[in-house]
Amino acid sequence: MRKKNQRNATFIQTENAMVKVAVINTNEELMIAQDVMRLAISETVTLGIPA
To answer: What is residue 22's three-state secondary structure?
Structure first.
């Protein structure tokens, strides 16, 4: 399984596994930044502060 992960395989479960194990690439920093911006804009609108 480790070799599959090193090859950036989409699925890394063993051949006889009962379930599929998927590797999903994410960019956590980008997602956090987008959430912060969305919340900041939402709060600005809620408080009536010009953006």
So the answer is: strand
Number of domains in the chain: 1
The residue behind tokens 């930044």 is 33
Q: Which residue has the tokens 């709060």?
A: 43
**pTM for this prediction:** 0.45
Q: Which range of residues forms the domain containing residue 21?
A: 2-47
pLDDT digits (tens, 9 = 90+) for 7-48: 677 888 888 999 988 888 889 999 999 999 988 888 766 666
CA distances from 32 to 6, 27, 44, 46, 50 (A): 26, 9, 18, 21, 23
